[in-house]
Amino acid sequence: xxxxxxxxxxxxxxxxxxxxxxxxxxxxxxxxxxxxxxxxxxxxxxxxxxxxxxxxxxxxxxxxxxxxxxxxxxxxxxxxxxxxxxxxxxxxxxxxxxxxxxxxxxxxxxxxxxxxxxxxxxxxxxxxxxxxxxxxxxxxxxxxxxxxxxxxxxxxxxxxxxxxxxxxxxxxxxxxxxxxxxxxxxxxxxxxxxxxxxxxxxxxxxxxxxxxxxxxxxxxxxxxxxxxxxxxxxxxxxxxxxxxxxxxxxxxxxxxxxxxxxxxxxxxxxxxxxxxxxxxxxxxxxxxxxxxxxxxxxxxxxxxxxxxxxxxxxxxxxxxxxxxxxxxx
Length: 329
Fold this sequence. Notes:
2 domains, alpha/beta, Nucleotidyltransferase, domain 5, 10 helices, globular, 329 residues
């Protein structure tokens, strides 16, 4: 049911243990963190689990079927068992488009909340965009972007069932202000809206040509990993040029089935999601024409973590950059 799991069950300082759950259309993500000493601003990731539930694949139905509901509940039971090994875990869990769009979404949320012993909140698209922005701003080292005062920066999150685009303005080195965000039910799973709907999204935001882009989704990270593997590049590279992306998309269409499997090996657990992801990214490139895309490893669940950290330790923190907090794998 899940593709990857890394777990170190240790009973460390219970008061500094934080858990987050993000239930999306393609997968459920669960992270568990511990902070040995908040003065050092170091966060240790001690569990990172991804359950491939594919709740957004409903073949045109508006209801999530019984089997997928059971798989989701079983994933929550596994998570609860892990959490029970720790005392007083600070925990935050949300669901996005997967439950927003399903007629039985509220029932699933209620049943999973009972299992997790905490509310699994179905959040709005604007809240999803805000939390993703917060996660990137709080943890990402923005200095490498070489931003200018007043410059426009787009955060783009291509999910399984929806895509969120947020427009930010660079105010100063400690403030990347979220101006506005918008969402559409275009995602990488089959059955969503036509990817062309992305173009309407861009027009509504009045996005400038050549705007800088931060891509925070698995689609962008998959393209980056395929590119690095193809070119034998530094594994720490986090930039993609428009030409890099166009080459990956072009090559993916020319390969045989066997060649494609080898080509996409760095993103094997998302292989079925790549074709539509490629199409969405291609449309974004054609419309925005960025010089390059910065690929972030931070996302919505890191926004959940940032909120808990601000509540626990940094009470005065706002939506900032360069917070000084660092996550260690």
